[in-house]
Specification:
By secondary structure, this protein is of the alpha/beta class. Helices cover about 40% and strands about 15% of the residues. The strands form 3 sheets. A 7-stranded mixed sheet has the order 11-10-9-12-13-14-15. It has a 6-stranded parallel sheet with strand order 3-2-1-4-5-6. Strands 7-8 form a two-stranded parallel ribbon. Strand 10 (about 335-340), helix 15 (about 345-350) and strand 11 (about 355-360) form a beta-alpha-beta unit. About 45% of the residues are buried. Residues about 430-435 have low confidence and may be disordered.
């Protein structure tokens, strides 16, 4: 098939890369606000596993052609629209003024995060009987976008036209061979499903964070509770990990959108509003633990922060928990030595030369003469540090684990005070227990 992909979102770049590697002839037109010359140098394109490599390979092979404007686009069987929500007016104009004047049959795939019902609006801008708009919500997981596109758990396809459904089935056939993973439904149902999935995942995380707070007050290890809950087949283990808040440009944005839809429909003070509030509170959880440990005497102290990206495997910091944490620390005059394997350029661009921020080249150097180590993003390189060396580098042996990736007892054996999310261990307590 000839496929035109329009947009500069991760979903657009991933679609261009994946579709061009299985035999489709793809023409990618990034949004003019972010042309390929800009995208090619961005950290999120470079750091997304396999994405830049596949884009480069497809460009070199000729299966992917980069287009600088809509004028250079050919006629296509499928037009894949994946722009940001604030570019909706541009998308509408392109569909009406360009695609709406095409004389041939095609399917328009709405892969953008637009308001519920907008796929139907796009179709009204087209003119022929077989110019059909379908909804195919972006369900990619950032940090493994290529994997989730090429080996999906499911596709959520909103289509009420048999011909268009068959076209999309052929488009995605290479990624749908093991079993039929396409969940077919009306367009509005597909658009709502995307938001419903985000809401459910966020609710599970926030619920575990609430339980972790309760476990802290009851002196219960939340890890024991989590494992027992996850073993119940009615619940399962996914997204049951408490932590210092979630973020990300897509996850957080869609959660707020779902919450705003409820408000617009006159449904106020519901569960989703509570989920948002819990997450905002949890993004300052490590700050509160630091405050408690030092009895509020934080001015002039220095801490190490490991991790800035909103999740491992990405360089993006949009809505990341580290942003709220840094603001809270700096408000108390705390100097921060920050390390992240991929997101330091984004932090530098966001904050500039902040007087209370030092960007550390290595995780170890960030810990020199600090009063605490705060783990925010669970990059794999942070999972097994040299505890003996850390004990000599740090001025005070305090570990605040925002992702519960460490064994509290093991860390305490090396002389550290450990505080996780619903977990804790003091070196004195561990020594007493060992003596028993």
């Amino acid at each position: 098939m000839q496929v035109v992909v329009h947009g500069s979102e991760l979903s657009a770049a991933t679609a261009a890369a994946a579709l061009s590697m299985v035999g489709h002839q793809v023409y990618w037109w990034p949004h003019p606000a972010q042309p390929w010359s800009v995208l090619a140098e961005t950290d999120w394109v470079r750091n997304e596993p396999g994405l830049y490599h596949q884009l480069s390979q497809s460009i070199d092979s000729g299966s992917l052609t980069l287009c600088e404007s809509s004028k250079s686009l050919p006629s296509a069987s499928v037009y894949w629209l994946a722009v940001s929500s604030d570019q909706r007016n541009d998308a509408d104009h392109w569909v009406e003024q360009t695609l709406g004047r095409e004389p041939h049959d095609f399917v328009l795939v709405n892969n953008s995060t637009f308001p519920i019902g907008h796929t139907e609006v796009l179709e009204t801008l087209l003119r022929k009987e077989r110019q059909i708009a379908v909804a195919l919500p972006d369900m990619l997981e950032e940090g493994r976008a290529m994997a989730t596109f090429t080996r999906p758990d499911s596709w959520i396809l909103g289509s009420e036209n048999d011909w268009a459904t068959r076209q999309i089935g052929e488009l995605l056939r290479a990624f749908n061979r093991r079993e039929n993973s396409v969940r077919l439904m009306p367009r509005r149902a597909a658009e709502l499903t995307k938001l419903a999935v985000i809401g459910m995942l966020a609710t599970r995380v926030s619920y575990m964070n609430e339980l972790a707070s309760l476990a802290d007050s009851l002196d219960v290890d939340i890890e024991l509770v989590r494992q027992a809950m996850g073993s119940d087949r009615r619940i399962g283990r996914e997204y049951l990990y408490p932590g210092c808040g979630f973020g990300g440009p897509s996850f957080a944005r869609n959660l707020y959108r779902l919450s705003s839809i409820r408000e617009r429909e006159g449904q106020h003070n519901g569960l989703l509003e509570q989920v948002v509030q819990v997450n905002e509170q949890k993004q300052e959880e490590l700050f509160r633990k630091l405050w408690q440990h030092y009895d509020g005497n934080l001015e002039g102290r220095t801490v190490a922060v490991w991790g800035a990206a909103f999740k491992p495997g990405t360089a993006r910091i949009a809505h990341a928990p580290v942003l709220r944490l840094l603001d809270a620390l700096w408000a108390q005059g705390v100097h921060v030595k920050l390390h992240d394997p991929a997101a330091l350029p984004a932090i530098e661009h966001y904050y500039g030369q902040h007087p209370l921020l030092t960007l550390a080249g290595t995780a170890q150097s960030a810990c020199e003469n600090v009063d605490a180590l705060l783990l925010v993003t669970e990059w794999k390189e942070y999972w097994n540090p040299d505890w003996k060396r850390l004990s000599t580098l740090m001025a005070a042996p305090l570990i605040l684990d925002g992702r519960n990736i460490y064994d509290p007892a093991f860390v305490a054996q090396h002389g550290f005070y450990y505080r996780g999310i619903g977990r804790r261990a003091d070196p004195e307590e561990r020594a007493t227990n060992d003596d028993r």
